[in-house]
Amino acid sequence: MSLRVGLVALAALVLGACGPSRINLSIKSPVGTNMGRPLYMLVRQVDPKQYANEAYSEVASRVGSPDETVLQTSVIYPGTIQRFQVKAPKDGSVAVSFLFTAPDGNWQLLLSPPLSRSVDVELATSRILRESISQEDAKEEAPAAPEGKAPEAKAPEGMKMPELPNPLGGKK
């Protein structure tokens, strides 16, 4: 019985290390986004080199004729916050493209492995204003703080450190 539990735990660890099975997208679209008109969001698996060289028209054509790389197509409505769960590919990068009527600036973003579990995107009138990964992912990716105490500040030789008032009152 304990061998079976060990194998199940090992399988969960291996599968969990491969990345999330779903990506949670939260899209904030202010009222003036796309001049107040709905727009398409296209989520697809991409090769980073291909992604860098794709024209807007190539990406837009996949809305009407999706291929095997398309993971999701959705309509984004201005003045809303919409949430989506997209099945993550087993490997590779993911592009999230916003098909504005008149794109002016960044209209798509690339999510590279290891893929985040959650991505927040805020749109502007004709471009992506900002995107961020979830705090949970940031904690996992952030390097650990070094152990120990910070070095004590000392005045250069021949100088005396100034006496500063204690903001809490009383003596030091």
Could you walk me through the main structural features you see in this protein, from its secondary elements to its overall organization?
By secondary structure, the protein is an alpha+beta fold. The protein has a domain at 18-137: Immunoglobulin-like, CATH 2.60.40.4150. Helices cover 22% and strands 31% of the residues. It has helices at 2-17, 48-53, 56-64, 135-141; strands at 22-29, 39-46, 70-76, 80-87, 93-99, 108-111, 118-123, 128-133. The chain has a 4-stranded mixed β-sheet with strand order 4-1-7-8. β5 and β6 form a beta hairpin. The longest helix has 16 residues, at 2-17. The radius of gyration is 24 Å and the shape is extended.
Q: Which secondary structure elements does this structure contain, and how are they paired or packed?
A:
Elements lengths: L1 H16 L4 E8 L9 E8 L1 H6 L2 H9 L5 E7 L3 E8 L5 E7 L8 E4 L6 E6 L4 E6 L1 H7 L31
Parallel strand pairs: 1-7
Antiparallel strand pairs: 1-4, 2-3, 2-5, 5-6, 7-8
